[in-house]
Amino acid sequence: MSSSLRVTTLDPAGQARERVLAIRDGWLTEEDGSVVETVSGLTLPGVPNLHSHAFQRAMAGLAERAGPVGDSFWTWREVMYRFLARLEPDDVEAIAAQLYVELLKSGVTSVGEFHYLHTAPDGHPYGDVAEMADRIVAAAETSGIRLTLLPVLYQTSQFGGAPPTEGQRRFVLPTDVFARLVQDLVRRHGGKPLVRLGIAPHSLRAVTPDALDAAVALAREIGPEAPIHIHAAEQVKEVEDCLAWSGSRPVAWLLDHQPVDQRWCLIHCTHLDADERGRLARSGAVVGLCPSTEANLGDGVFPFPDFLAEGGRFGVGSDSNVCVSPAEELRLVETVQRLNLRARNVGERQPGHSVGTALLARATAGGAQALALAGGALAPGQSADLVVLDTDHPSLVGRSGATAIDSWIFGSHGTSPVRDVMVGGAWVVRDGHHAREDEILDRFRRTMRRLAS
């Protein structure tokens, strides 16, 4: 199936220019000159969201009460454990579908689902070990978003192999059962055009070195490009505990003991020293920044300018899904640095160049790499995943080229200028509306009312 679109997009200099995009079977191909549809507005490559825990969309706002002895990531985590104890498979599917529609309407065309909710509330496996993972795939298919599913290996509560806590019981699978889960997912979903599969050892505190080796070996079984994602160095306490356990900081330990390369995505990496930062940049791995969640949890500030200067690659994710807008995530990446450094235009230092365009291009390329996608550019051989901005939107009217991107990222508040979204050559959002948003929202509302009862 083929078609062509006449669109306005950006040239390498950041100027708006008209061109024809030819699409065949969900891929961009060489231009053939025929035009089926003229698309008004500014067309961009779809934005990847490289890190999501979908179920946490339903608990946004539930951890914003002051505790008796101060609050941190670790107290937030206890709220999360209590919340997930009630979630059933139908709930997870309904929440994920609602989230994915919201992501699509904000300009996200692909999501990396870091999926660690495996078992029943009492910690026992479902009859089908892939029950929960299949619900994530079903939600993605209902919404039309492109999915990189990252089943999580989680077995311990602390460095050195401490047993999991009661609150973590729904995450835990023995290594052989986890391997069966991965094999089942490959068999069921491996050939689907909008599904990719990878592996996510949760963190160094949640897997032993042997279990980490097993997870990396499973990734190789999936395929040579299967991504490997892991949380790393999010909290100061995590760094201190890793030093006490191994004598090394978490990212240094990974770089010393695993073949960290372009297939890897290290999530957060908030607390790096200079040596780790340089080595990580040189490895070719992607750092997954989730600034709205990192701010919400009080994680700290990633050393962004120095990492960029050393050639580091990054993408953005929504993580706990207190925010679903890639524009807002990129705005936070930049503005947190401005506050920290008391400077402006930190993410792009070339005189006259657009900060928003630079951030968006790097995050799109880094996200595509982290999710093992052929995307990130409007070029032949890339997936036909497109986002169209409404240039008549109040935040963009009168703006063109790179200035429109800067206005989207730094000047759009309230309503979004994202008008149309295409995934795999099919329009999934038109004029700001998703074709199935009403039924998906209705199911989500029923789920939320049940959980609140």
Mean pLDDT: 95
Integer-rounded radius of gyration: 21 Å
- Overall structural class, as computed from helix and strand content, comes to alpha/beta
Unreliable stretches (pLDDT < 50, length at least 5) are none
Largest sheet: 5 strands, antiparallel
Query: What's the total number of strands?
Result: 18
Distance between the termini: 48 Å
Strand content: 15-25%
Strand order of the largest sheet: 5-15-16-17-18
Number of continuous helical runs: 14
Helix content: 25-40%
**Tertiary shape:** globular
Assembly state of the chains shown: single chain
Characterization of the model:
This protein has 453 residues and is of the alpha/beta class. Helices cover 38% and strands 20% of the residues. The chain has a five-stranded antiparallel beta sheet with strand order 5-15-16-17-18, covered by helices on one side. Strands 6, 7, 8, 9 and 10 form a five-stranded parallel beta sheet that branches. It has a four-stranded mixed beta sheet with strand order 3-2-1-4, with no helix packed on it.
Layout of secondary structure:
Blueprint: E1 2-10, E2 16-24, E3 27-29, E4 37-38, E5 42-45, E6 47-52, H1 73-84, H2 89-105, E7 108-115, H3 131-143, E8 146-153, H4 175-189, E9 195-197, E10 200-201, H5 209-222, E11 228-232, H6 236-246, H7 250-257, E12 264-268, H8 274-283, E13 286-289, H9 291-296, H10 304-309, E14 313-316, H11 326-341, H12 355-370, E15 386-389, H13 401-411, E16 418-423, E17 426-430, E18 433-434, H14 437-452
Parallel strand pairs: 1-4, 6-7, 7-8, 8-9, 8-10, 11-12, 12-13, 13-14
Antiparallel strand pairs: 1-2, 2-3, 5-15, 15-16, 16-17, 17-18
Helix pairs in contact: 2-3, 2-14, 4-5, 11-12, 12-13
